[in-house]
Amino acid sequence: MSMDRADIAFAVNGAAVSVNVPPLRRLSSVLRDELLLTGTKVGCDAGDCGACTVLVDGDPVCACLMPAASAAGTAVTTVEGLANGRLSALQASFLAHGAAQCGICTPALLVAATALLEKRPSPTEIEVQDALGGILCRCTGYRKIIAAVMDASRQPASLDFRLPQSGHAIGSSPVRLDGVPKVTGVEMFGGDSFPADALAVLVVRSPHYHASFAFGDLDGWAKTHPGIVGVFTASDIAGKNCFGVIGPFADQPALAEGFVRLRGEAVALVAGEREAILDLDLSDFPIRWSELPHVLQPCEARIEGVALIHGNRPANLLTKGFVERGDPEAALAAAAVTVTGAIDTSYVEHAYIEPEAGYAYLDGETLVVVACTQAPYMDRDDTAKVLGLAVDKVRIVPTATGGGFGSKLDVSLQPLIGLVALKTGRPAALAYTRNESMISTTKRHPAEMKATIGADVTGQVTGMVFEGDFNTGAYASWGPTVANRVPVHASGPYATPNYRAEGRAIHTHGPIAGAFRGFGVPQATIMQETLYDELAGRLGLDRLDFRVNNCLRNGSETVTGQRLESGVGILECLESLRPHWTRATAEADVFNSLNASKKRGVGVASCWYGCGNTSLPNPSTIRVGIAADGTVILHQGAVDIGQGSNTVITQICADALGLPLERFRLKSADTVITPDAGKTSASRQTFVTGKAAEKAGRALREKILRFANVSDQATLQLDGPAIVIREGEAVRHIDLASLAADADGFVFRAEETYDPPTLPLDSKGQGKPYAVYGYGAQIAELEVDLKLGTVKLLKITAAHDVGKAINPLLVEGQIEGGIAQGIGMALMEEYIPGRTENLHDYLIPTIGDVPPIETILVEVPDPEGPFGAKGLGEHVLIPTAPAILNAIRHATGVLVTKVPATPSRILAAIRDKEARQ
Amino acid sequence: MIRYAKPTTVDEALALLGEGAWRILAGGTDFYPVQGSKPFRENVLDINGLAALRGIAETDSHWVIGARTTWTDVIRHPLPAAFDALKQAAREVGSIQIQNVASVAGNLCNASPAADGVPGLLVLDAEVELRSAAATRHLPLPEFILGNRRTALRPGEMVTAIRVPKPAAGTSAFVKLGARRYLVISIAMVATRLVTENGAVADAAVAVGSCSAVAQRLAGVEAALRGLPVDAGLITAIQSAPMAELSPIADVRGSAEYRLDAVREIVARAVLTAAGRPTGDKVAA
User: Fold this and answer.
1) In what order do the strands lie in the sheet with A620-627?
2) Helices A543-550, A570-594: crossing angle, 10 deg rounding
């Protein structure tokens, strides 16, 4: 049934090429699979993300929407053609500005911006936005991309990598150490290095939310399809067909056994030669489905007598978290003012531009999985468990990861491709389609929350009660973490002496809700911060003053009874916003006095967030050594999913060791060669792995000093294959080549582990769940069109206490990217299973949706963090949505109680208010 | 084997169409997303070799937009002010990457209720040229798009052009309402074309998309506008004019009530913009 192939000739990056492919093969596939130009990325195969943008005869097009036949005779330019022996000014400008984080959208942005700069060498902001509006980026928040393109014409011919002097790495902003491959297109992501002889794998998935199924004659079916090598089901799984990120809650089969609990659940794998799989129609796959009743809402799932989604979890309750302190009922009864409210949130999709991808192969008896991930060691353990292998017979080799934001903490395709490789003995490769990624991987939990907060006449908060149902979907994933983190954080960074909070994770047949930047805290903060505005209003207090009056200070006790001795920076964050608050509210007042149908509003909200696991062990190990040639080799196992750990961890280690950054070489998070630095989640890498890197750097320094018999006052310097050590007048040389190297090639080495000191939470949630917290506050300024319900964001001002900004440019990048995700959550992102399983019905912010962002870095050092540093990655998203909702209320007088606050919902709230007046 | 053909003349293409069922490939921007990762099982007629069908030409009676003319072609081609709404819509079709290859005719053949290109053509009274090996016929656009994803295209036929009758008088404007700035499916969109004489509306055309299965001209609004002086009274007229043609549904982008409410506002804005009086927001002091 296939189509004749044709010879198609065209030029790519100036070179003539000819391919023999079916004429309807997508140009993106031709570039990647035939010509091995994998710098052109595939994010959606539908023109929704723009990641495949190339130039055809100078004009940007989506290569995924162009038939190979249309390329005939044209000149195609891909990212690989932009550097001509050295970086183009635009590529250099991207690195200088920190415009590439994970790097998956970077090739497309560079290509499209190159076309713009050809016509407009010094474009305006609007021109840049218009030119790049068709390319989605999920990491950066776009502002640094805009700046990089606008400034490209001023970029010096040679890029200053800004490598700091020895001892000055911390606090400097060198170009990210892994940056160059991200702008040249040579960075290898999950789908970019498939072996030519790999079997292609298709996953058969459930079209139903809840159904039983039975297979027909699978072998017979396979035999009638040439090129199909095998069909594999749960019966082929040798290990325990049950995985999950939290061992005691593990409940998810890699391939379902007889029935499915969610739409998109995997039931079978079809492996075959690549061309056979491309031409395979699964409509005659022998499976018979029997649909079963399903529940998608927690309120339905909690009804007594409803069928249990997991037989061992009564009332479909996965677990709940609970924190209680003082006597909240008495406090609320005695309060001068109390406010009560309810907020609902929606499923939010991570929408990284790189769908899950990877390949697996057998190296002797070891199964090697090369794939994108946030958690290589957890992948190893779960893959080994499912496939019945010893953990040392599974090796995880992380590729570059094109965004994660929490979802790539869970295994996805690892056990699937591993199974095919084991069963066939051949490499097996799989890249999820966008639809497959969206329906089968985790989401942010939808929350149904209610709360009451009371304050006394002086405006001091006296008590709060909070409860929330979090729709955790069909399997546990990180639901327990969300249920536990929420009650610990739902007070916000405010002293709340009387408090009760309960978070419940409830199973439904909806998408699995798991980890997503903030683990439920962004949802809970919307509840708390919108009530704070109402309280301030009822008390007649300025909304910023009210927060300043109540925020935690050094010496405060948290709702878990943890006394914060030092390092509490929320007051500094709020105070640093004050001039902006004064200006913004005054400007809004003036605007509003002159305009009737558009109104401006200003909102503020805060965050706090504990870094690392909640009351659980959470170690990271870092190994660093010096090779005989004078190279410093850092085994850096904190997976860099774009946030910058490759650079930040190295900066910390460099200054702890006392050698310059430029002498460092990184070994990645390969589970065979690099110690476990834990998962990239919970805002823990800078703090926990950074602390391990500090300890390892200091330990290595100590070994060298002891070898040279000098004191800690000495300085180190690398001079070729020698270390020069100076202390006062004394100078010593250590000839590294003369020393015996160990099996890893090190002549000096150190390995250190750090595990943050926490204490368990008792039955009332009292204890010390985190060793370090980070803080922040943001102001949103916006304009609401009262006749359409549309919101135009004007500016976000973000003050974040990071303890110590190890790399200020990367900190800004995290803040801007987190704010963009907060904007999406506040205004447009709503994943509806069965309805928004693509990137044109599911909307994330484009380059035109993120306003200017002013970052204020606050540095209140934490004694526990490395060089005083705190975590940041999740904090930055938390205040944005509540600040926006508060600003909308300031502008319109209405609070939207279901997010996202779409134009439809905002106008409905305005009309409702009008009807009540 | 399924067939693939890329003819270079229209006659050749029409002859092939007469031989059996084909799926037509033009810009590909709807073709590939519909295909997804499924294998091809239909014969595909690739019309990208038909050079004669690309570009905009002028005859004594019509502006003729060839079927392969892209949205970028429309933007770049000098056209009367009556086409401004179409040009503004062109800039909102997907992204620049889409506009560079997607054809105007493809937007009509795809027959999405949210097709950004349709209202701008409706206010120009555009008609669709359909050819088969045997015959050529011209259908007014409202008779071509019959419903959600349904057109009057017959077996053996293809769209060869879109024709806009002259003089294409007046000025026009397009307003799109979406939940984000770029690359967004419209919640609603409006195109208007006004012909004014001596400070009054001599003729008005108003079309709305995404608020019914097929974009609709609003006869009641048009009638209410005709003869009115070009001033704030136009808004008053729009506020009370019937919009019986609209039958919006609720979907992920907005409720039906919202669409009906918001569309009246964007009709007003589009009319004022077409009249050269873009909506200022200042309150008289």
Assistant:
1) A664-667, A632-635, A620-627, A746-754
2) 170
Dihedrals phi, psi of A123, to nearest 5 degrees: -75, 155
Pairing of strands A59-62, A53-56: antiparallel
Compute chain B's Rg from CA coordinates. Answer: 19
Question: What fold, for A620-754?
Answer: Aldehyde Oxidoreductase; domain 4 (3.30.365)
pLDDT in tens, A814-831: 999 999 999 999 999 999
Residues 205-244 of B with CB under 8 A from A: none
Scan residues 74-103 of B and list those with Cβ closer than 8 Å to A. 94-98, 100-101
Q: Which fold has domain A199-293+351-440?
A: Aldehyde Oxidoreductase; domain 4 (3.30.365)
B5, closest residue in chain A (CA to CA): A23
Q: Which CATH class is domain A443-613+763-916?
A: alpha beta
Read off the pLDDT of residues A174-210 as tens digits, 9 standing for 90 and up.
999 999 999 999 999 999 999 999 999 999 999 999 9
Domains of chain B are: 171-274 (3.30.390.50)
According to the model, what pLDDT value does residue B283 have?
36
Give the pLDDT score at B284. 36
Q: Do B181 and A848 touch (CB under 8 A)?
A: yes
Q: In CATH terms, are A89-184 and A443-613+763-916 the same topology?
A: no
Residue of B23, B182, B190, B238 for testing the chain A interface, max A β-carbons within 10 Å = B182
What are the pLDDT digits (tens) for A521-553?
999 999 999 999 999 999 999 999 999 999 999
pTM, to two decimals: 0.98
Asked if A597's CB is within 8 angstroms of B262's CB, the reply is: no
How many Å lie between the alpha carbon of B108 and the closest alpha carbon of chain A? 18
Cβ–Cβ of A841/B185 closer than 8 Å?
Answer: yes
Contact B282 A595 (CB under 8 A): yes
Q: What is the pLDDT of residues A564-606, one digit of tens each?
A: 999 999 999 999 999 999 999 999 999 999 999 999 999 999 9
Say if B43 is an interface residue toward chain A (CB within 8 Å).
no
**Residue B2 touches chain A, beta carbons under 8 Å:** yes
- Min Cα separation B34/chain A (Å): 8
Predicted confidence at residue B277, as pLDDT, reads 82
Closest Cα to residue B55, out of B157, B129, B161, B130? Answer: B161
Q: Do the beta carbons of residue A911 and residue A893 sit within 8 Å?
A: no
- Judge: B182–A134 Cβ closer than 8 Å, yes or no: yes
List CB contacts (< 8 A) between B182 and chain A: 129, 133-134, 846-849
**3.90.700.10, 1.10.150.120, 1.10.10.10, 3.30.70.890: CATH of A89-184:** 1.10.150.120
Residues 248-277 of B with CB under 8 A from A: 252-255, 257-258, 261-262, 265-266
Burial class of residue A84 in the structure, from the number of CB atoms within 10 Å of its CB (0-12 exposed, 13-18 middle, 19+ buried): exposed
CA atoms of A523 and A448, how far apart (whole Å): 9
Contact A903 B179 (CB under 8 A): yes
Backbone angles phi, psi at A689, to 5 degrees: -70, -35
Residues in contact with A775: Cβ distance below 8 Å, sequence separation at least 6, in sequence order: A493, A568, A569, A570, A573, A606, A607, A608, A800, A801, A858, A860, A875
Residues B15, B5 contacting (CB under 8 angstroms): no
Architecture of the domain defined by A6-81: Roll (3.10)
Q: Report the distance separating Cα A906 and Cα A823, nearest Å.
A: 15
Contacts of B186 in chain A (CB under 8 A): none
Model pLDDT for residues A324-344, shown as the tens digit of each residue: 999 999 999 999 999 999 999
pLDDT tens digit sequence for B155-212: 999 999 999 999 999 999 999 999 999 999 999 999 999 999 999 999 999 999 999 9
Domain boundaries, chain A: 6-81, 89-184, 199-293+351-440, 443-613+763-916, 620-754
Q: Is the pLDDT of residue B280 over 90?
A: no
